[in-house]
Design brief:
Elements: H1 2-7, H2 10-21, H3 23-29, H4 48-76, H5 82-117, H6 123-132, H7 150-172, H8 183-188, H9 190-196, E1 201-202, E2 205-206, H10 207-221, H11 224-232, H12 234-253, H13 260-284, H14 290-317, H15 324-359
Antiparallel strand pairs: 1-2
Helix pairs in contact: 2-4, 2-13, 2-14, 3-14, 3-15, 4-10, 4-12, 4-13, 5-6, 5-7, 5-14, 7-10, 9-10, 9-13, 11-13, 12-13, 14-15
Amino acid sequence: MMGKEISRKYYIDNLRWLAILLLFPFHAAQIWSGGEYSGFYVWSHTDTILYAFSTAVYPWYMTLLFVIAGISCKYALRNRTYRQFIAERTKKLLIPFFFGVLVLAPVMTYVAEVFFNGYTGSYLKQYVLFFTKETDLTGYHGGFTPAHYWFLLYLFLISLAALLIICLQKKYLPQLQVSGMPYAFILLLFVPMWLCQYILNIGGKSLGQFMVLFLFGYYIFSEESIQQILKRYRFVSMVFCILSGSIYTYLYCFVNCRGTWITGLYIFYAWMGIITLLGIGQTVFNFHNRFSDDMTKASFFIYMLHMPVLVVTGFFVLKLPICVAGQFFLTVLISAIVTIVLYTMIIQITRFAHLVWKAI
């Protein structure tokens, strides 16, 4: 038992739930970021600080989750057959995706219809509108959207594609192993990430880029030798991350720079954010206790529930005559509390139903 605990990479679990918790302030900041038509389900105005915050967070937080998913896949396949892995991915990703899109996403588009379009009809009529209205797939002004559940679908498809690659690799290159990679080479891996972002890019979310990140996680960052390199150079990575992130955020938000080279800076910053967190995580976040264990278990449910709760919360908080900072923190606090309460209620109801079922 002790051997398992020592070998488990707790910082991977902790980075995952911390990234998901970050979604509360990130998505709340969207209410005051960009512009009315650049998007969120409710919107007030552009606040410089919150716009800069959301711009600084966006490049690395979702890309990090795909790398972590790749690392976790490597560990999962050590004690699962391919058939078991596919069944697990279907249960944990594909089914929740359909539930999120069909049940939870319409809640957000209903709020958007009321907020932006003055919609006064019933929720049921809006549910029909959800499937029939012409839409850009964001749902920010109503209409169909996969919302943030796109991540589940992408991860499911990428997991299946990666499994095929892994099967072929084990058959034709069974000795393939990545180790001893110099730090400078790791830095340059942002280049394939950059090139692949143009592959199957749907609404700014590239299946090609996320696939590469997943495979990097599986083949590279799951290796102990690579993890030690990231740990050794973590402060160098942090300097690169802070410098590139500061320059990118300034140019994007305050100079309004767009184009190929700013995209390259965006990708480099995202990459440095990933390897910085993987390096620092080994010294700062490699712990486990009851709270971290509970958050690891709750993180998926939090991801599923947080956005509908936050959008509804933001809709009402914007009506309060308080400053932007107050509205922002109130939105984050209330949505986080309500989400945790809903999660706790769902778990208790599920446990009760299970006990009843066993008794029958």
